[in-house]
Write a structure and sequence with these properties.
The chain has about 160 residues and is α/β, with parallel strands linked by helices. The protein has one domain: Rossmann fold (3-Layer(aba) Sandwich), CATH 3.40.50. It is built from six helices and five strands; from the N terminus they run E-H-E-H-E-H-E-H-E-H-H. The radius of gyration is 16 Å and the shape is globular. The N and C termini lie far apart (about 55 Å). Bound molecules: 5-O-phosphono-beta-D-ribofuranose. The site of 5-O-phosphono-beta-D-ribofuranose has 11 residues, from strand 3.
């Protein structure tokens, strides 16, 4: 196994996406997942993106989470250059409230899949959970943690007090 192995890599198109994607990184941390996050853009830094993807292959990364707004090509470009499962998170970054990014990400041509989550924070949280569920196929300790997470979530809903 590679010395620098990570399980999940988060890439986002701009620093302005970080406020939303922090929710994803925090959840991965809560589950003790080895991860890293980078700002790299399919449009603004295409060469550096390719170099980083090559590094991820060497480091035997398992899953990539790609977040971008506007004409969001990041998830698709990452998926086209790798065989790692790619989870896309559309960012609410412009006048179309993320619908532009959602459609850009989800309408992939057949042959290059991207697993697209919802727009913004809910998508960021679900991207982390989906990545953990993928990793749990080979790591039963993560399944145990996911069961506990869902139990805590259900208890919170059931104990909700209304005014
Ligand atoms: C996308 O453009 C980024 O992912 C971001 O969501 C959006 C706006 O980027 P900035 O102009 O804030 O850098 O590429």
């Amino acid at each position: 196994m590679s010395e620098n192995k990570i399980n999940v890599a988060i890439v986002m198109g701009s620093k302005s996406d970080w406020e939303t994607m922090k929710n994803c990184a925090l959840l991965l941390k809560e589950f003790n997942i080895k991860s890293e996050h980078r700002v790299l853009s399919a449009h603004r830094t295409p060469n550096e993106l390719m170099t980083w993807l090559d590094e991820l292959k060497q480091r035997e990364c398992d899953v990539i989470i790609a977040a971008a707004g506007l004409a969001a090509h990041l998830g698709g470009v990452v998926a086209s250059h790798s065989l790692m499962p790619v989870i896309g998170v559309p960012m609410d970054a412009g006048s179309l409230q993320g619908m532009d990014a959602l459609l850009s990400m989800v309408q992939m041509p057949p042959g290059i899949p991207v697993a697209v989550m919802g727009i913004g924070k809910p998508g960021a949280i679900n991207a982390a959970l989906f990545a953990i569920q993928i990793l749990s196929i080979k790591d039963p300790s993560l399944t145990t943690k996911l069961i506990a997470y869902r139990k805590a979530q259900a208890e919170k809903v059931l104990n909700e007090k209304l005014d």
